[in-house]
């Protein structure tokens, strides 16, 4: 017999099912709970040229239809995909009348941000690039995350992947049982889908880093929506999961950009320590970046991280940045009690909309490994536990039943249950 709990659950589900979410129509041939990556030289070799040889993915895993996508490495509207029925429907589903009236910014001829005329002191738009602001001035906009709160915790994050040549780096992370937050560029996911599959398979926390990696405040509302949406669709196509989190390239975010991300239920993750590793050879020497790493590592034991942890900006971009990571992580592990991804350090157990994969909360991460938290134990000790499949995975199909008809049926079932009771 139904009881009142059943009725309440059915009613709540009925309400949730009433709105179709934008990601419900995304398709994927990949089951994120059971990923096996095709064994081709690109996925097994350690030779850069072999790893970076382009391949045609197995269409049963990654079914690419060009007419449904922007051009890679160009603004996500550049090929006119924004006039498609799919994008137009999404665009029209947003209440643009409520969007903040904040100007689209421009770059100076030298590539730097043009801040002329902006009130830097009062920072009315919470523009990180000029002020480091992370708490929106607008209501109803998701606040940025920029730190792991637990003391002596290194928030492990890598931007700009999946890079074609990451096999040695991902093998290293796996060996050390480290789970990072990986901010993937949509264009890289389209070019190297098996690389993205591996990120999910290895238990990393996958988040978005936009379609074409531009200064977000310089894009129009429609361009921003396309940069977010097609990256969501790409990550879902390659992995079967859709991220709730994203990171602004160059940290360039203001309340207009945050408002649009919030319409897609996405939250920005920034950082509070920057290694500048991406700039080796472009304004920074290898030695300068190594010094930054060494300073941040020292902070793990000299009192700087005694009351809170950090989130460190590092990159997957290329061999230089990945080798820096491999060379420094052993010392990170010995100087910090905890080295983990942003989902775990923030207790975000469901960092994807699908709720198929759950991540350990910080206390679960601690409990899962008695040596986690002991900085002097073996290097793997601080890594923490793997994401697990959750009980909801068997019922996740229900999440896609979103039509009004289904909502109506759920309410009807609830009413029947009341009648039976
Ligand atoms: C965003 O999340 C809210 C609350 O969970 C939900 O009601 C809404 O449908 C979601 N919107 C989209 C576009 O996914
Ligand atoms: C996992 O995938 C493999 C093939 O890739 C398949 O043979 C196996 O049955 C799957 N297991 C589950 C539990 O779905
Ligand atoms: C691939 O996508 C196309 C267009 O969406 C569809 O017609 C086709 O059936 C799909 N193929 C597979 C193997 O899923
Ligand atoms: C598509 O985007 C481009 C570039 O932002 C813009 O010029 C064009 O007007 C947009 N098209 C539609 C139908 O909105
Ligand atoms: C890595 O990228 C940086 C620019 O971001 C460049 O200066 C450096 O030479 C690259 N290293 C390799 C090995 O390609
Ligand atoms: C800890 O180390 C950092 C980096 O070397 C340094 O800037 C800071 O002053 C040190 N703090 C203390 C309390 O020694
Ligand atoms: C990926 O890494 C390789 C090797 O380090 C580098 O040559 C390439 O430019 C990187 N690709 C991207 C898209 O950053
Ligand atoms: C970087 O390239 C060198 C030379 O090819 C290679 O030995 C090393 O393993 C690479 N590092 C990473 C992290 O891939
Ligand atoms: C995570 O959960 C633990 C245990 O409940 C709590 O102490 C901690 O404050 C939480 N962290 C965040 C960021 O919510
Ligand atoms: C940490 O590990 C070291 C070396 O294995 C051990 O001697 C020490 O007792 C451990 N401390 C705690 C608090 O577990
Ligand atoms: C627990 O710590 C041990 C020793 O440091 C390590 O080998 C193991 O991989 C860790 N396990 C988990 C689940 O983190």
From TrEMBL:
Its cofactor is Co(2+). One of its GO terms (molecular function) is metal ion binding. The keyword Oxidoreductase does not apply. Coiled coil: none annotated. One of its GO terms (biological process) is cell wall organization. Transmembrane segments: none annotated. It is found in: Cell membrane; Secreted, Cell wall. Residues 1-20 form the signal peptide. This is chitin deacetylase.
